[in-house]
Amino acid sequence: MVGLVTTPTCLYAAVLAVALVPAVAGCAGQGSVEEGSASRAALAFLAEAGSRPSDACGLLAPETLGELEDAEGPCPRSLPQQHLPEAATVRRVEVYGKDAIVHLDGDTVFLARFDEGWRVTAAGCTADGDRYDCAVKGG
Amino acid sequence: MKSTLRNHGLSLAFTALLLLALVFQALTGQAFYNEQAAGSGLPGMSLGEYVTSSHFTVDVAENWQSEYLQFLLFILLTVWLLQKGSPESKELGKAGRESDRDQKVGAFALADSPSWARAGGWRLRIYSRSLGFTMGAIFVLSWLAQLVAGRSAYNSEQIQSLHEPLGWLEYAVAPDFWNRTLQNWQSEFLAVGSMVVLSIYLRERGSPESKPVGEPHASTGVEG
Predict the structure, then answer these.
(1) Which long-range contacts (CB under 8 A, 24 or more apart) does A62-69 make?
(2) B130 in a domain, yes or no?
(3) ipTM value for the complex
(4) Which residues of A are less than 8 Å from B170 in CB distance?
């Protein structure tokens, strides 16, 4: 401690490093690990939306599930009625912290990472300028 | 220990204040983020997740870059620009890099001058500008950190609102980046300008940032 405080420059450099390095490392390193997980969740949701809607409903974010059921009735019955496109190929994935956008052939899906994993916040989305209109979305 | 505190009290005090401010910024920032996330039905963050997130990083970096820009500009501009009456200015007539005698280099270096000040050559040239170089480097690095983290935080919000994320060039010219930058810059320039001008007429007895209480207003480059 005495050695440290006799060199104020070292003390300040240490504080700068402690404050910024882990934060920058955290926000830089997360994307590549989570891109695969977000992609798999989006693909699974779209694959099951028509054939196994109960499973697909389990991949919806809570608010999105609530919005769908408030508007259209129980999810296992209302989800197939949204006629979400079947998409098998991921063209591009972008992950920023706990939010992801997955561009697939025929659809764009928005996701958020909850404690239990990635969940779909919006699907059946088409671009309108830089904004998306989505068939299934939260409030 | 007592002499350590006495001789290094200023840096210790500001280090402690910095750490305290960072801790409370992290806590309040996490609370604010989670409040907004809960309102949108989105997942919150633990404290560990928050301090390693782009949201915390950009909030730290945008402030740091402006502080170091402030110091960089103040250090460089006070070489050539003067302000009559201000203790923050050099004496009138002394604009510029000054003589070797005044700067205690070359033949005028002291026995206990820093080694690169005594060395001459490229070492002296580098050391003579080391403060500006360092402030400038930290400014550039922290502004870069603001750009990287700011784009990530902004795109996170874009996705939450069902908007297309921005690419690097798009974000570098985006209102979010420049609004964050300029709102910080204006406050730094205001602070330095205030200090330069107010210290002409006002005093703080005992502070080296003030002229002596009885020093005339027209005295320039005199510290208490």
Answers:
(1) A62/A119, A62/B41, A63/A121, A63/A138, A63/A139, A63/B40, A63/B41, A63/B42, A64/A119, A64/A120, A64/A121, A64/A122, A64/A136, A64/A137, A64/A138, A64/B41, A66/A138, A66/A139, A66/B41, A67/A137, A67/A138, A67/A139, A68/A136
(2) no
(3) 0.86
(4) none
